[in-house]
Specification:
Rossmann fold
Length: about 270
């Protein structure tokens, strides 16, 4: 299946600026250093062509022999990659023999491209550091959303694990922020090519992944269980709905299950 065509640079620039203008404001915050329990690790900066500011990330190598490397992409929160400093994801990956790269997605209003370009830069850095090791992606909410176009056009990733990913940002916004509906209608009918590009169902159909799993909360009003199941179906992957969990709550309600399911997905991609 062929993924949606990327819009022209001018249309993409207009679309991302409108999206950010309609999105919740994220204040600039001082990112804390990783806790001692996650050492050793390295704070790094990446430079993406055409970007005004560098990307920031944390590299966390595994302690022993490595079996693979995972790119971690955070939800739309002010604290960015530090979201992964909690809930045991990094510790579980390290213990299982995976290097990790946790990437920030900078929410600058005057950026000129969609966030999948940042994901692509992060994935390139992960490949540089991991060498010939198998690569995987673990994306949560917005981070997982923006990974979809990259994975639709990339054949060097084996497995992907997604939590709380919406199939379309404007559909999510229609339900969760109804006051913006006139702007969403304008976007859909005037910026038709960017609107089509932002449909992650179509990107999921183009995946060449060996294993992919979607997790969602049964009580999430923005990313409905039916949305999660549909993405999994389009991606030819598996799906797990966590009962009594809202948005970003599955990892809290079923922590051990989520960690084990992610590791199982990556192992399945490696043929283990």
């Amino acid at each position: 299946m062929t993924p949606p065509i990327r819009p022209s640079a001018a249309k993409e620039s207009t679309a991302i600026r409108l999206l950010l203008a309609l999105s919740p404001r994220l204040p600039r915050v001082v990112i804390p250093a990783p806790p001692d329990a996650l050492q050793p690790c390295e704070e790094i900066t990446l430079h993406r062509q055409g970007a005004r500011d560098p990307l920031t990330a944390t590299w966390l190598p595994t302690d022993g022999p490595a079996r693979g490397a995972v790119l971690l992409l955070p939800p739309w929160l002010a604290w960015g990659r530090t979201y992964f400093y909690r809930r045991g994801r990094l510790e579980a990956l390290r213990a299982a023999g995976y290097h990790s790269l946790a990437l920030d997605l900078p929410p600058h209003l005057w950026r000129h491209g969609f966030f999948d370009l940042d994901v692509e830069a992060g994935l390139a850095e992960l490949r540089r550091r991991a060498g010939d090791l198998p690569l995987h992606v673990w994306g949560v909410s917005a981070g997982g959303y923006w990974a979809h176009p990259v994975l639709a056009r990339t054949e060097g990733v084996g497995g992907a694990f997604f939590e709380d990913v919406a199939p379309h940002l404007l559909e999510w916004s229609w339900r969760m922020a109804p006051l913006g509906r006139p702007f969403y209608l304008f976007f859909r009918h005037v910026l038709r090519q960017p609107y089509a590009y932002l449909d992650m169902r179509r990107h999921a159909e183009a995946f060449s992944l060996k294993a992919v799993t979607y997790v969602g909360g049964a009580d999430d009003p923005g990313v409905r269980a039916a949305d999660t199941r549909e993405l999994a179906r389009r991606a030819r992957g598996t799906c797990r709905i966590i009962h009594q969990a809202g948005h970003l709550e599955s990892i809290k309600v079923a922590n051990r299950e989520i960690l084990e399911l992610a590791l199982e997905t990556f192992a399945r991609a490696e043929g283990a």
